[in-house]
Amino acid sequence: MCAKATMEDFEALLKESFEIDTPEEGTVVKGKVIAIEAGQAIIDVGYKMEGRIDLKEFANPGEAPNVNVGDTVEVYLERVENARGEAQISREKARREEAWDRLEKAYAAEQRVEGAIFGRVKGGFTVDLGGAVAFLPGSQVDVRPVRDAGPLMGMKQPFQILKMDRRRGNIVVSRRAILEESRAEQRAEVIGNLSEGQVVDGVVKNITEYGAFVDLGGVDGLLHVTDMAWRRVNHPSEILSIGETVKVQVIKINKETHRISLGMKQLQSDPWDAVEKMYPIGSVHKGRVTNITDYGAFVELEAGVEGLVHVSEMSWTKKNVHPGKIVSTSQEVDVMVLEIDSAKRRVSLGLKQTQRNPWEVFAENHPIGSAIEGEVKNITEFGLFIGLENDIDGMVHLSDLSWDQRGEEAIQNYRKGDVVKAAVTEVDIEKERISLSIKALGDDSFSEAVDGVKRGAVITVTVSAIEDGGIEVEYNGAKSFIRRSDLARDRADQRPERFQVGDKVDVRVTNIDPKTRKLGLSIKAREIAEEKEAVEQYGSSDSGASLGDILGAALKDRG
């Protein structure tokens, strides 16, 4: 009876042992560490199976293995029995499976996960998420580009899963999303405590060409270069340095974009409030050239107050010249205040007004009629330009070159660089013009020749040349031409060939033209005048005397 019961119990146990299935390959099972030897942990996974796992699979990136005899651990059963008769197991794959389950739940719930950056790959970094390896793109490391990621390596920190695909084994995470989220919360809190006009302390975090970013305790504000000082600032580094603590005023807060505009100069008095009092129109001040442009130069009168010297107000004599050829940056100059527009914060300055007008000086030193000497600077179709003192020019018109030659002929006698003498004939200060005359310094032979001669007078001339159209005659060195029609009263006697060179001829002066320097002469006019005089003196309308008798009597009296 006892033996029968024992047999039944054995059969029941045997049946029970057959009913218990061995674990399925490719699943995660629990095992117990029963020994550690030769860099491996020996693990009993039950079912009379043992396996070996390298200790490094029990270590997190950058850490020592964390496993002891007696620990219960989860392992991945790859094969129930390998060539040595042991179970082929893996701690790393078990961790990966467990991690994927955990990460998929976190991804679905949009929760943060913890991980550590442990390696650098092309385009970014690798992150251990507690068994699963994820890719961290370089653009997702921080809110700003990171030059040195060394301090971040191996440090446990939160990440946001952007994308994951279990089938392909791909996970993409972001550290930047976590920072932006926490930063946004921090910004909202800080901005909520700020108000426009408030004065706060901040630390200069970054400097650019257009300004500086100042950390106000978790939120950055922009301090634009134009709000750093009332004076001109070429680059923010002239005033600020990174890490410096500065006192700034909140100028504007954009609640939507969370952008904050800051100012430093607003904490100082505005120098423009006293500009009109300090710099009355017409006053002369010393300033420093701060900037040169094509249209003029900016001159700083004091910190924060600049004025523009327009190119037209830079020099009395240098026209159409770039301002950089008259003044240089940082040069100290005397300027006169010409105009002030406080509303537009503009001051118009003059450089040339601090010096005397060279045309005024010339007029004082060289009265009309005085002689000057200068170099021919330019020759044009209408005259010569003569260089004078203080870089000004005078002009000799064609008509003022010579008494005896036409201007077009006389100008051929001059070349650039020639030194000439001339007389001052006019100075127009307003139009900045000086008129000169070279011929005024020479003798006027024509004026001397006709001195005392009046229109209608009869003078004696000498025939100097005979031409088909008339004769050329000379009077006291001045030459004139008598046309054929003026050679006689009678047409039959209007023949040039009846005269010879050297003949003395009485002629009547019909015109004196100083401009053309010509005498109008006529034998015909003299004869007509003499006839009229004879008629008036020796004859009358009722005397009955013939014209021949009258002229004969007149000639007899003269004889």
TrEMBL record:
Gene3D superfamilies, per database record: Nucleic acid-binding proteins
Q: Mind listing the UniProt keywords for this protein, alphabetically?
A: Repeat, Ribonucleoprotein, Ribosomal protein, RNA-binding
Q: List, for all copies, the residue spans of the domain called S1 motif.
A: 26-92, 110-176, 197-265, 282-352, 369-439, 456-524
Any one Gene Ontology cellular component term annotated for this protein: ribosome
Which Pfam families is this protein grouped with? S1
Cross-referenced InterPro entries: NA-bd_OB-fold, Ribos_protein_bS1-like, Ribosomal_bS1, Ribosomal_protein_S1-like, S1_domain
Give a short account of what the protein does.
Answer: Binds mRNA; thus facilitating recognition of the initiation point. It is needed to translate mRNA with a short Shine-Dalgarno (SD) purine-rich sequence.
PANTHER family hit by this protein? 30S RIBOSOMAL PROTEIN S1, SMALL RIBOSOMAL SUBUNIT PROTEIN BS1C
By sequence similarity, the record places it as follows: Belongs to the bacterial ribosomal protein bS1 family.
According to UniProt, the name of this protein is 30S ribosomal protein S1
Q: What is the lineage of its organism?
A: Bacteria, Pseudomonadati, Pseudomonadota, Alphaproteobacteria, Rhodobacterales
